[in-house]
Amino acid sequence: MKINYRQLSIITFMSFIALKFLALPSLLYIESKNMSMFVSLILMIIDGLYAFVILDLMKKSGEKNIYEFMKNCLGTVATKIVLILLIIKYALVAGNISKGLEFFVVENLYTEFDWFVFVLPLMILVGFMVYKGIRNIARVSEMVCWAIVIGLIYIALKALSGMDILSYLPFLKDGFKPLVDSAWIHLSWFGSATFMFMLFGFVDFREEKKSKMIKYIIFAILIVELLYFVFYGLFEVTSPTHNYCISDISQFSSTYSAIDELSWLVVSMWIVAQAVQLALYSYCLAQAIKFLFDIKNNTLPIIIVVLYIFAWSFIGENTVRMERIFFTPFASIVTFVAQYILPILLEIVYAIKNKKKRAKDRIERVKDEREKNRDKKEINVNI
Amino acid sequence: MKEKKIEIKKKLMSIFSPRKLVLWLSILILIFTVPTFNKSAMSETQAIVTMLCVDKVDDKIKVATTVLTPSQDKKANFQVYSGEGETLGYAVDSISLAMGKEMGFAQCKIMALGENICDEGVMQVLDYMTRTKKVGRNAVLVSFTGDVIDFTQAVANLNLEKSLRLDRIVSFDKRYILTQDSNIETFYIGYYSPISLGIMSKVKLATTEEFNAIEVASADAGSSSGSSTDMNSTGDGGENKKFIMNDGTVSLFKQGKHYLDMTLDEVKKANIFVNDAQKGTVVVENVTDHIYNDAKVVVNILKKDIAVEPNFKDGIPIYKTDVSLTVFIDEVIEENPSERLLRRNQDFLTNALIEKIKQKMESDMREIIEYCQDNKVDLLGVYKHFYALKNKDFEKYLDRVGEDYLNEIDYQISIDVKSEN
Fold it and tell me: Which among B29, B106, B391 has the least Cβ separation from residue A111?
């Protein structure tokens, strides 16, 4: 079952904003201080550009899935290595989303909330969505997308008046080094286009409109940057202490009005969107496991993925901070290779293979023509 | 052998088929959730704390809380509990012990800090309450005078008797006095800024009636660990009258310790420099011209625009403030009002009045600059403006003068006054 280009654009939009509104803004501030929003801006623009490289590869793959396509380009061994890399990337993102959601709901949203009351339904939801496939994820994304957009804009605009624009100055006081350091350390939060690899062969390009994808990506970048602009303007030096960006912005200044309660509605919608994103990356993880071990049935990969999310509930529960797990150079390297090296490598190998194939075809064509000409000459001589 | 393997695989697959997966997970849910049915209601195990007051008396931390008890009738039922201990944690735990309930601070909307704890430093209290006890950072922060238990009871009674809430009273200050929320978050931002200046509203508990004070009943209560007073019924027996007073006094904190108090008048003068402080009045006297005759004129500020331009000239910092006011004549007090005042179609904002307003504003602004210089307190945001807009020059200047950076600045003020028409 395929998804159309519009649905792909919406999933991409959701993936671009998926990990951005919990701990990331506070973590970015540690290295890059008041320039943090520019780190995310640069990395998201790069992600956006790479989304088009992967899309190009997706188109070239035609009906082939990623495994068949890579096997054709890189061979079986290299493909398996790349799949392991992608599994790590998807596992990191899925783990990050599930742990972030768990912390948010169990620790921040409620005063006393047993983790399994949240984790078990989440496991069932994710298992079911992955079982139903990418089309299901796309449709749910379509349903919640605009509610999320309106809600996030509402939260940002409501808090806009409380921010201090002077906190962004002086501009680039310590140069670009803190920005580069911050970008490298927190790279694993980005690489938002890597999910596209697992959609090779699942996208119908008949109604392709590149402008649509460009619009959605730009829109995602603008929304993230708007929220970050407000966040750093509100909290300034205390930004690193705000691990729940989305709720902290909305709760910065309660005005005792009924409209304040809307903020919680937005936060609730955002939790739904996060669950959908968890399903998307779990789907990618299940697909990658399926390809790696050549499993024909979907059930086993789904069970592995669901159990993996369940296992995350035990890792670092309430004690180990998420960043210790995610912000290792290893996670940055995995993201760097999966998002930035792999698409370029595949493009180059595909181009070389295609060139060789074209050259081979041309030689064969010339040979055929020569043979035909020779045959004609022989016939003429015989006549 | 191979067939056997396939058979086992098939069996495994049938156990974990998607349909059965749902069944397995449902069983899991039941295993985990059924035992929770046996748990008691949260209200029986947790106390809903709505306000926390902390002070230090004789080397002991004293804590008093108002606890909301849900009741079937719609009447709010607040109870005041108090406790003491060597540390804040011990004091809070002593209340838990007395109540037999955990203290839940998620609904705590007010944190009131007594004079002694303010003088000693409030950061440890704020850190403990926000990090360990999870008090929301948007909880209103006030400093208070008076006994910790008396104050808590008075605030609880304020709610019950007058339907007034201290958090809302203090939040109102934002519009007219503080120009920012008096809450934990803004205090943190101030504390962690380079000038380490925190601001919070000050509420006084008085025993005698004063101007601006609200009368409330305050029942006598002991201050022993875990003592409580039911604030649901407030009869006459055994009660003292107390007065809660929010007169616009603001407490300033440096490095987290109480530094000085500003009167409402001083705060209003400082607010001339703050763009967010849109409301205000200017009172000018001895206005005499073709309309006024030695009049006292009260002018309301309708709109205010502040443009700040920090600059350096020959190594001397210049802090230029342009104030543009749109005003409206509110009151004219004359001994023998002339009939000219009743005439329509004339501009009451005469040149003489404008000049007087300018003089008054400038003198107020100069006064507050002097106040800041004398007390070494940067209320005007001088550091922030210079740091943001003239960073390199300012850092050199700071290296030279250090903490006394306010003293050598040339403050230039220009005021423009317009009529609302």
Answer: B106
Q: Characterise B202 by phi-psi region: left (phi > 0), alpha (psi -120 to 50), beta (else).
A: beta
Query: Which of B261, B284, B308 delimits the end of a domain?
Result: B261
The shortest CB-CB distance from A131 to any of B18, B46, B168 is to B18
Helix A342-382 with A36-61: angle, nearest 10 deg: 30
Q: In this predicted model, what pLDDT tens digit does every residue of B290-306 receive, in sequence order? A: 888 888 999 988 888 99
Distance between alpha carbon A238 and the CA centroid of its chain, in Å? Answer: 28
Largest Cα span, chain B = 118
What burial class does residue A225 get, using C-beta atoms within 10 Å of its C-beta: 0-12 exposed, 13-18 middle, 19+ buried? middle
Question: Phi then psi for B381, rounded to 5 degrees?
Answer: 80, 30
Contacts of B25 in chain A (CB under 8 A): 120, 123-124, 127
- Rounded Cα–Cα distance for residues A93 and A88 (Å): 9
Which of A103, A109, A111 to probe the B interface (max B CBs under 10 A)? A111
Q: Which fold has domain A3-341?
A: Amino acid/polyamine transporter I (1.20.1740)
Domain that holds residue B213: 42-261
pLDDT tens-digit series, residues A158-213: 888 888 888 898 888 888 999 999 999 999 999 999 999 999 999 988 877 888 89
Same domain, B145 and B250: yes
